[in-house]
């Protein structure tokens, strides 16, 4: 579903961030992108639907090159959810925010209303269409931002730090939404337990390249590996125990 080959990128000030990223994600996979601050995680994410353009290398989505002639199709296929939901919620009501994307694609009338209803139901905000976004909690706003993307009926959902600053209930509610989606999912996160909960596979991006690619539980159980890439688990968190408990293998 996603093919990144030799992706390199430098910002206009000359700062090189990506130095040749290779990453392949199959349809339906759930993959976490981990790494220290400044590793290029968000920069990589912004290449997946053409917000940034590679200095070298290529990005393909379901075989379609992420280039200017294909941008309309790519941006329908790949939905980005930013860390700050206020970057995506700008209309007077939640329903209008959710309708904005498909309406720009020419969806109208009953079909548009169904898109809005379907997307809000998927994130547990069925009754929120007429609410003002700024009256919602952070967790509700983040789920509303997910709904604005789901209304486009994408094939790939890319999230930047989805659990950041959420309280435990908001974190759980968002996880329940994400686990219920039948999509290819790529999640940039510093929240290692969240990566373990949602993504069977993780990659560590460091120094502008993919340094490690493997099963999330194996990566998180390797203390030396985490330390080498400035990653830390919460105190007392045991990833193997957490997996065993969640699968019913341990009381």
Write up what this structure looks like:
- There is one protein chain.
- The model has no long low-confidence stretch (mean pLDDT 93).
- The protein has helices at 41-47, 71-77, 94-104, 109-122, 138-150, 168-179, 192-198, 216-220, 223-228, 239-246, and strands spanning 2-10, 16-25, 30-34, 56-61, 64-65, 78-81, 156-160, 184-188, 201-206, 209-215.
- It is globular, with a radius of gyration of 18 Å.
- The chain has a single domain (2-246), classed as P-loop containing nucleotide triphosphate hydrolases (Rossmann fold), CATH 3.40.50.
- It contains ten helices and ten strands.
- It is 36% helix and 24% strand.
- It has a six-stranded mixed beta sheet, with helices on both faces.
Provide a quick synopsis of the model.
This protein is 36% helix and 24% strand. With 251 residues, it is α/β, with parallel strands linked by helices. It has a single domain (2-246), classed as Rossmann fold (3-Layer(aba) Sandwich), CATH 3.40.50.
SS element count, helices: 10
From the 3D structure, determine the CATH topology. Answer: Rossmann fold
Low-confidence stretches: none
Rounded mean pLDDT score: 93
Number of domains: 1
Strand percentage lies at 15-25%
Q: In total, how many beta strands?
A: 10
Task: Report the biggest beta sheet as strand number plus sense, adding barrel if it closes.
Answer: 6 strands, mixed
């Amino acid at each position: 579903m996603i093919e990144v080959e030799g992706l390199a990128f430098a910002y206009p000030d000359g700062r090189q961030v990506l130095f040749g990223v290779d990453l392949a994600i199959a349809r339906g996979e759930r993959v976490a992108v981990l790494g220290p601050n400044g590793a290029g995680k968000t920069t990589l994410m912004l290449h997946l639907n053409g917000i940034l353009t590679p200095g070298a290398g290529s990005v393909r989505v379901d075989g379609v090159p992420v280039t200017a002639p294909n941008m309309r199709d790519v941006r329908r296929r790949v939905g980005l959810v930013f860390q700050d939901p206020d970057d995506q919620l700008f209309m007077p009501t939640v329903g209008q925010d959710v309708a904005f994307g498909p309406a720009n694609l020419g969806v109208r009338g009953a079909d548009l209303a169904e898109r809005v209803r379907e997307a809000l139901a998927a994130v547990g905000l069925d009754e929120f269409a007429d609410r003002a976004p700024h009256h919602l909690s952070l967790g509700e706003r983040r789920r509303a931002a997910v709904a604005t993307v789901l209304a486009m009926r994408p094939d790939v959902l890319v999230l930047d730090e989805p659990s950041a600053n959420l309280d435990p209930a908001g974190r759980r509610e968002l996880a329940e939404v994400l686990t219920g989606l039948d999509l290819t999912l790529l999640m940039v996160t510093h929240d290692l337990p969240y990566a373990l909960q949602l993504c069977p596979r993780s990659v560590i991006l460091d120094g502008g390249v993919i340094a490690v690619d493997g099963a999330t539980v194996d990566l998180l159980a390797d203390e030396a590996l985490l330390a080498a890439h400035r990653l830390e688990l919460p105190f007392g968190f045991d990833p193997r125990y957490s997996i065993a408990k969640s699968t019913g293998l341990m009381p």
